[in-house]
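wait is this the right file?? whatever heres the structure
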């Protein structure tokens, strides 16, 4: 049985403090099946990697980022190996000014420090100082910009056949035209339907799939050279450039940022 991250009443009830937080450090993988709760949840990672499933999308939570889950939004959670992270739960009433849809955000040092402080509170009504810190967390979330850390799934069976094949072998570098022939549709149709059903071009979808898989492998400590080859890159430099463009840092620096956070939380 999975041990609750935080007291159930601080997740599902409008009573008590309008904001509650908790930190989690674990040595093994953890999986929580599809569920929802009355409060909105902001889930962040300090080290390691977790993924969150939303209907037909799978999102990842790498260190330095967080996922906002609005109230009553059905989702599942899975962590990969050793993981350290945190969650903030905000009453539905206070979520009125917050994003109505799930989104990924890049966490700021101010947000992380405020959450760390909030995670030490006993779960009773907030005093004046605690209220100011809680308001900072809400303000940081409200002002955050959306980041792209999700991978939408198409509905068309022909596109699903392609995405399933790519998911099984991300090193497959066949061009769009070759995939179209393989799936039995015209290249223009494939191109158009990919954008319509996922909001991404075929090339963007494949790169996003590779990025999310790269984050899992980086979190598992796999060497960068091995990751680049597994994902179909001709050389390590090309993979590092992709990673930097997507997350604003290299795989090595990404781990270096996460490691101090892990030490502090342990």
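ok assuming it is, sequence goes like this
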């Amino acid at each position: 049985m999975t041990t609750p991250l935080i007291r159930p009443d601080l997740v599902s009830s409008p009573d008590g403090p309008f904001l509650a937080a908790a930190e989690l450090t674990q040595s093994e993988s953890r999986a929580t099946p599809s569920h929802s709760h009355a409060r909105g949840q902001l889930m962040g990672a300090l080290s390691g990697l977790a993924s969150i499933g939303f209907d037909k999308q799978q999102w990842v939570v790498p260190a330095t980022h967080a996922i906002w889950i609005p109230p009553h939004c059905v989702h599942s959670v899975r962590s990969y190996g050793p993981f350290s992270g945190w969650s903030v739960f905000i009453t539905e009433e206070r979520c009125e000014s917050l994003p109505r849809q799930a989104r990924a955000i890049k966490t700021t040092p101010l947000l992380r420090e405020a959450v760390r402080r909030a995670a030490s509170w006993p779960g009773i009504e907030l005093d004046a100082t605690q209220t100011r810190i809680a308001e900072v967390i809400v303000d940081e979330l409200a002002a955050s910009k959306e980041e792209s850390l999700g991978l939408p799934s198409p509905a068309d069976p022909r596109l699903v056949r392609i995405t399933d094949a790519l998911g099984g072998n991300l090193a497959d570098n066949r061009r769009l035209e070759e995939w179209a022939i393989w799936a039995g549709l015209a290249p223009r149709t494939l191109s158009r339907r990919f954008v319509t059903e996922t909001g991404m071009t075929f090339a963007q979808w494949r790169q996003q799939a590779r990025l999310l898989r790269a984050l899992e492998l980086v979190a598992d400590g796999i060497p960068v050279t091995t990751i680049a080859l597994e994902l179909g890159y001709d050389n390590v430099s090309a993979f590092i450039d992709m990673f930097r463009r997507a997350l604003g840092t290299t795989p090595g620096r990404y781990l270096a940022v996460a490691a101090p956070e892990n030490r502090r939380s342990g």
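Confidence is low (pLDDT under 50) at residues 260-266. so i think its the right one actually
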